[in-house]
Write a structure and sequence with these properties.
This protein is α+β, with helices and mostly antiparallel strands. 25% of the residues lie in helices and 20% in strands.
Length: 269
């Protein structure tokens, strides 16, 4: 059951003081039906292409073994709707309100997850090596193109855990087990977005229906507050940022794809 921890977003996309305070305390904000229907539909079609044409697998191979596979033939942000999502002004406006006006794009992931997709154990995605503080915000925006329901796996979060300083897999040994104080997000309309502090522990809990469920369309776009050097997660991160600038995805925000906010790539965390 989804907890009542959200407030409606005004058409102006100005968050209330209560929403901003909730995000600071709890580490997440749920925006039901946030994406325009037309954009969500185009993203869904592109996700089908991304999976069905093997582009996702090639992208993964380029990350796992860059010496062998080199650059991927297509990156997510080179797909028109995915590139539009990265610089979607209402999204960037929300990020500005919870993170401040200066932030940089970190990465983009897209997938069409099968109904029998296994769970993903408790973890967080805050990029820091070693994990020493939470002085700068990193945010993952999780976009559920077809929403979430009883026939899809659920997102479960541990409110307030983003304030801890802990390794990414510090709770991984617990699998996807129910934890005291957790919040389950399992009922969302299409085009919904969850704004998640990257240090918040969360998990993907499998759907009870298994093979009888439906595909789960999911896009994850991540951004980092400027003021510190962030480790990249893709070996071709410079190529990615250059390509984003060439495509004009920055929408007049010069820091959005600036390379100076990153350290050198050192391999998977």
């Amino acid at each position: 059951m989804t907890p009542n921890l959200t407030l409606p977003v005004e058409r102006t996309l100005r968050l209330s003081d209560e929403q901003i305070d909730r995000f600071a305390r709890l580490g997440y904000l749920v925006l039901p039906g946030f994406l325009p229907d037309e954009l969500a539909a185009r993203l869904r079609r592109e996700a089908d292409r991304w999976v069905d044409e093997g582009l996702r697998e090639k992208s993964i191979a380029s990350c796992v073994d860059p010496d062998t596979h080199g650059l991927p033939p297509v990156m997510e942000l080179e797909l028109a709707a995915h590139g539009e999502l990265v610089g979607h002004e209402p999204l960037l406006d929300v990020l500005s309100q919870v993170m401040g006006p200066d932030f940089v794009f970190h990465h983009l992931h897209s997938d069409r997850q099968r109904p029998d997709v296994p769970g993903k154990p408790w973890h967080h995605d805050y990029e820091q090596r070693p994990q020493t503080d939470r002085n700068h915000a990193m945010i993952h925006t999780l976009h559920y193109l077809d929403g979430l329901g009883p026939d899809t796996s659920a997102l479960v979060v541990l409110p307030g855990s983003h304030l801890e300083v802990a390794g990414k897999d510090a709770r991984g040994h617990l699998g996807t087990a129910e934890l005291p104080g957790e919040a389950v997000i399992d009922h969302l309309p299409p085009g919904s977005t969850v704004v998640l502090h990257s240090a918040l522990f969360h998990a993907r809990r499998p759907a009870r229906g298994g093979l009888s469920g439906r595909d789960r369309y999911f896009v994850d776009a991540s951004y980092c507050q400027v003021g510190t050097a962030w480790p990249p997660v893709k070996p071709y991160w410079r190529h990615m940022l250059r390509r984003a600038r060439a495509l004009g995805l920055d929408r007049g925000r010069p820091e959005l794809f600036a390379e100076r906010h990153f350290t050198e790539y050192t391999g998977p965390a």
